[in-house]
């Protein structure tokens, strides 16, 4: 699994000057967010719902940062693309 620099940039574009400030707004430890960004593990569904709520976006938008390739592969298998 590779890192997720696009999510870190997304946070900056949403007004979070640091990952630590975003983590604080989510009520979680910064290390958890850093682990997601670095690709150590994908966020749980609960974490993605929290991220979406704090950022004011849909869960689908958050999921695309970690699962887009999976969704694309599923679409190929199902013949949707």
How would you portray this structure in words?
With 81 residues, the protein is mainly α. It has one domain: lambda repressor-like DNA-binding domains (434 Repressor (Amino-terminal Domain)). 70% of the residues lie in helices and 0% in strands. It has 5 helices and no strands. α4 (45-55) crosses α5. The longest helix is centred in the C-terminal third of the chain and has 20 residues, at 59-78. The mean pLDDT is 87.
In brief:
This protein is mostly helical. The protein contains five helices and no strands.
CATH fold-level label: 434 Repressor (Amino-terminal Domain)
Give the overall form.
elongated
Estimated radius of gyration = 13 Å
The level of helicity is over 70%
> In CATH, what is the class?
Mainly Alpha
Features:
elongated; 70% helix; single chain; mainly alpha; 434 Repressor (Amino-terminal Domain); 81 residues
SSE map:
Layout: H1 5-13, H2 19-26, H3 30-38, H4 45-55, H5 59-78
């Amino acid at each position: 699994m590779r890192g997720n620099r696009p999510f870190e940039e997304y946070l900056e574009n949403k007004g979070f000057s640091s990952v630590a400030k975003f983590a604080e707004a989510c009520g979680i430890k910064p290390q958890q967010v850093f682990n997601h960004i670095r690709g150590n593990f994908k966020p749980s569904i609960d974490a993605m719902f929290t991220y979406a709520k704090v950022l004011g976006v849909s869960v689908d938008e958050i999921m695309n940062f970690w699962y887009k390739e999976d969704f694309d592969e599923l679409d190929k298998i199902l013949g949707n693309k």
